[in-house]
Design brief:
By secondary structure, the protein is of the alpha+beta class. It has one domain (7-110). 56% of the residues lie in helices and 16% in strands. Strand 3 (97-102) and strand 4 form a beta hairpin. Helix 1 (7-21) packs antiparallel against helix 2 (27-38) and helix 2 packs antiparallel against helix 3 (42-56). Keywords: Plasmid.
Amino acid sequence: MEYNINIAEESSLAWDLTSVTAPWLSPEDYLWVCAKIGAGEQGSAISDMLAVLVRAKAKLPIDLVQALMEWIGGYAGSDTEPGLLRLMSKIRISTMCHTISREGSAHYLCIS
């Protein structure tokens, strides 16, 4: 089965999510996530970070949640989709987040 995933967009999403997830990752886990993304395993890295964010009860900005839902849409009908949707159903959304663009990437500042 072929999935509708844009690799460049997936990579950008993975890096954006890394900047949000970093406070809840140990230095070793942070390096592991970065290595996964660098090795082309963006989907796996995103799934791992979503699990971390759910455990941390972290809040994500709505624009990042929307991007994640669009990304999951690329897995529609796959065995991966139900697990990703379960994780997303547990993600908390913050309306008090600001996107800060710097050097071509987005950074998020969320106030709980």
